[in-house]
Design a protein that fits this description.
By secondary structure, this protein is an alpha/beta fold. The protein is built from 16 helices and 10 strands. The protein has 2 domains: about 180 residues, Rossmann fold; about 150 residues, Glycogen Phosphorylase B (Rossmann fold), CATH 3.40.50. The protein is about 45% helix and about 10% strand.
Length: about 350
């Protein structure tokens, strides 16, 4: 770092810290990837800034004399009006040079479920000052962003990097273990009885002696306990507490069925055969990034369809491994770009010149 170059820091922007495994996993992944604590975290709404004003003041003081970038490290965010506001506030309130988005997802234009919960406002994203998007999660997002914002490449979900960066403890169960994650906000969109019957049938056919019902957020607890109560196969409930513990629990499964997006992403990253249950376009977006098509099951599937997908999940393994390796290479390139910036090995302007950023 030259005398003329001030030290550099990141301000992390995301939904971490609210008891949701996926958002915490993204934060932990980038902490490991950048070898940076990422402990300056931007609040989201104006009310959050007011409520957290003492910490905000301390964080701003810590950043005095440092060049800073806001890092939006993933999640289904780009295109949503609310997240454009979060990006704008973080950039302005922290005095950042700009915001870098990595591995972001967007809702598909025909995703009435997601768009019914959060409206999109692409004009707000086009008007952002100094925002650069260094790759998106999957091909559906690529289409939406290219159509509405700027040309962009698929780099994959950043959480795919986690096992490459952090050791995950694996505990093998000789008789096998099936992991099942159901739940979306505010609750699961799938029929719990149908899932329980399919899991029991597959467990009986394969001699599996345990099911782990994952509650990957607080909103999932009722569904997870309800599933465990319906199963004939012995079941335990794993309630999310921290990323390492949950990653180890997923790694200990021989098969994972997941409605939660990052339940499926974590399983794929750990090379566990996976059956995604698609409740929104973001699930298909990810699945298309590691396979040749959308998630095989959606809301309204029957028992036989789920049993079939569980039976053939291992057949997709080689193809998914290859795609995951390709995406990890792309994510690694972005990771190196940010590490170079952090150590003043590259000029800030290069991060914004490399993409069709809006300045």
């Amino acid at each position: 770092m030259t005398r003329s170059t001030p030290p550099r820091s990141f301000v992390y922007l995301g939904w971490q810290g609210y008891g949701n495994f996926g958002d915490d996993l993204l934060h932990e992944t980038w902490r490991a990837a950048l070898r940076h604590p990422l402990d300056v975290e931007a609040p989201l709404t104006r009310r959050d800034y007011a409520r957290r004003s003492p910490r905000f003041v301390r964080d701003r003081a810590r950043l005095v004399g440092r060049e800073r970038l806001v890092l939006l490290g993933g999640g289904t965010t780009v295109g949503f009006a609310s997240w454009a506001g979060h990006v704008d506030r973080a950039t302005r309130y922290f005095g950042a040079t700009g915001t870098i988005g990595l591995g972001l997802g967007a809702a598909a234009a025909d995703d009435s479920y997601s768009l019914g919960t959060q409206p999109q406002q692409w004009d707000a994203w086009r008007s952002l000052d100094r925002f650069a998007l260094h790759g998106v999660r999957g091909p559906l997002t690529e289409h939406e962003v290219t159509t509405n914002l700027c040309p962009v490449d698929v780099v994959g979900d950043p959480a795919l990097l986690y096992p490459e960066l952090v050791h995950v403890q694996r505990t093998v169960r000789p008789d096998g273990r099936i992991g099942v994650s159901i739940g979306s906000d505010p609750t699961t969109r799938f029929d719990v009885d149908t899932i329980a019957e399919a899991v029991d049938r597959h467990a009986a056919a394969t001699g599996t002696t345990e099911v782990v019902a994952f509650a990957l957020s607080g909103a999932d607890r009722m569904a997870a306990h309800g599933l465990a109560a319906r199963l004939r196969t012995p079941a335990v409930v794993h309630e999310y507490v921290d990323v390492p513990t949950t990653m180890a629990a997923i790694a200990g499964c021989d098969l994972v069925v997941s409605e939660r997006l990052h339940g499926a992403i974590a399983a794929v990253s750990l090379d566990v055969p996976t059956v995604p249950l698609s409740y929104a376009s973001k699930c298909d977006d990810f699945w298309r990034s590691v396979t040749d098509g959308p998630a095989p099951l959606t809301v309204g599937h029957d028992v036989d369809e789920l049993v079939h997908e569980m039976q053939i999940a291992t057949r997709h393994r080689d193809g998914i491994r290859a795609r995951t390796a390709e995406l990890r290479e792309r994510l690694g390139s972005v990771q190196q770009r940010l590490l170079d910036w952090q150590t003043a090995g590259s000029p800030t302007a290069e991060l914004f010149a490399r993409t069709k950023a809006h300045a």
